[in-house]
């Protein structure tokens, strides 16, 4: 059974090989398993209400997957979606299509919660978006799978990614030194995964060889914070769900600095995401940030063009 622990703590799903070392190099700065930490908002033990129903229904392969991006706001989106009575989701990241594919679809299905007719099964594993094998593998499971990508300004995303690694390995080099192959010439190290993950247009090209764009939804990570109900409205429409999650479900928690749920799934209490979500980022040299913005600009414009959506990062 998958626990909500991260892979460093040996969750069963994380035991397999990592097939695509997408961004080799600077491994020390990547974190041993660049994945989500154990987080209280990813409960796998069913609530009393869902336990009552757990004998009924059956386990299904997911019809919709949040495939990325790392540090985009994927946990927030999944936790918000779980409020919907027609959505059932696995709490921990299964990492099936990148790390455990050899375990087979029956193993994968067994991780899923039971669902009743009309309910959608979902999971989120943000590394799928940058895994070369993932599009073909997901399409082989079902070419009708709906894919959701939460995207965020690639520069803040990179800093967020670095901040996560820094929290696990405080001795890594500075963000500034990892960014450049050669600081004097300003040549950016695109092999550093923190940088590479943000070249969204490149990754998207691989998905579009296997899925039509109408089967993909791009959620703005920024709007998920500034207007969670608005983004959730788009997601519910995309999934063919009744718009049940509305602004009435959210409140802005001033201490946390983020929107939180008035009532989480299977609970009557307010719920914010855990401490690992919404970390304070280190201050990064302005010139380095400027250079990174300049680097990402053409890729961002391409991405806006491909998705038909200006995310406003430039
Ligand atoms: N409501 C709410 N509460 C807390 N945090 C929120 C929320 N909505 C979006 N976010 C942003 O989510 C960022 C983490 O993204 P992910 O969950 O995709 O990270 S991970 O890849 O699964 O580790 C996290 O990044 P950091 O701020 O860098 O910690 C948050 O900015």
TrEMBL record:
Biased composition (Low complexity) is annotated at 47-57
In this chain, 3'-phosphoadenylyl sulfate is annotated as bound at: 71-75, 152, 160, 277-281
* Principal subcellular localisation of the protein: Golgi
E.C. code: 2.8.2.-
Keyword annotations for this protein?
Answer: Disulfide bond, Glycoprotein, Golgi apparatus, Membrane, Signal, Signal-anchor, Transferase, Transmembrane, Transmembrane helix
Whether Membrane counts among this entry's keywords is yes
Q: Which residues form a coiled coil?
A: none
Q: Name the SUPFAM superfamilies on file.
A: P-loop containing nucleoside triphosphate hydrolases (SSF52540)
Taxonomic superkingdom: Eukaryota
In alphabetical order, the GO MF annotations are:
[heparan sulfate]-glucosamine 3-sulfotransferase activity
Can you tell me which residues form the catalytic site? 71
Give the bilayer topology. Single-pass type II membrane protein
Per the record, GO CC terms? Answer: Golgi membrane
Q: Which InterPro entries does the record cross-reference, listed alphabetically?
A: NST/OST, P-loop_NTPase, Sulfotransferase_dom
* Sulfotransferase domain boundaries: 62-297
* Pfam family, any one: Sulfotransfer_1
Using the UniProt record, name the top-level EC class of this enzyme in a single word. Answer: transferase
Q: What's the name of the protein?
A: Sulfotransferase
């Amino acid at each position: 059974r998958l626990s909500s622990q991260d892979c460093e703590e040996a969750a069963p799903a994380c035991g397999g090989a990592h097939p695509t070392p997408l961004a080799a190099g600077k491994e020390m700065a990547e974190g041993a398993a660049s994945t989500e930490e154990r987080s209280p908002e990813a409960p796998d033990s069913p609530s009393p209400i869902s336990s009552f129903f757990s004998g009924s229904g059956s386990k299904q392969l997911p019809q919709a997957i949040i495939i990325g991006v790392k540090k985009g706001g994927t946990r927030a989106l999944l936790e918000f979606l779980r409020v919907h009575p027609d959505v059932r989701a696995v709490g921990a990241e299964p990492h099936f299509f990148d790390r455990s594919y050899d375990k087979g679809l029956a193993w994968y299905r067994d991780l899923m919660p039971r669902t009743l007719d009309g309910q959608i099964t979902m999971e989120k594993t943000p590394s799928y978006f940058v895994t070369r094998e993932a599009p073909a593998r997901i399409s082989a499971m079902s070419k009708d799978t709906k894919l959701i990508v939460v995207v965020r300004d690639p520069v803040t995303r990179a800093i967020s990614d670095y901040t996560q690694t820094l929290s696990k390995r405080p001795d890594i080099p500075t963000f500034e030194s990892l960014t450049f192959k050669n600081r004097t010439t300003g040549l950016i190290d695109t092999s550093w995964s923190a940088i590479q993950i943000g070249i969204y247009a490149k990754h998207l090209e691989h998905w579009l060889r296997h899925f039509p764009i109408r089967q993909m939804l791009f959620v703005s990570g920024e709007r998920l914070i500034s207007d969670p109900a608005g983004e959730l409205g788009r997601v519910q429409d995309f999934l063919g769900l009744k718009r049940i999650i509305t602004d009435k479900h959210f409140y802005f928690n001033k201490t946390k600095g983020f929107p939180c749920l008035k009532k989480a799934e299977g609970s009557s209490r307010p719920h914010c995401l855990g401490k690992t979500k919404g970390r304070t980022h280190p201050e990064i040299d302005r010139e380095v940030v400027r250079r990174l913005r300049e680097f990402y600009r053409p890729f961002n414009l391409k991405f806006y063009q491909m998705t038909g959506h200006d995310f406003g990062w430039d």
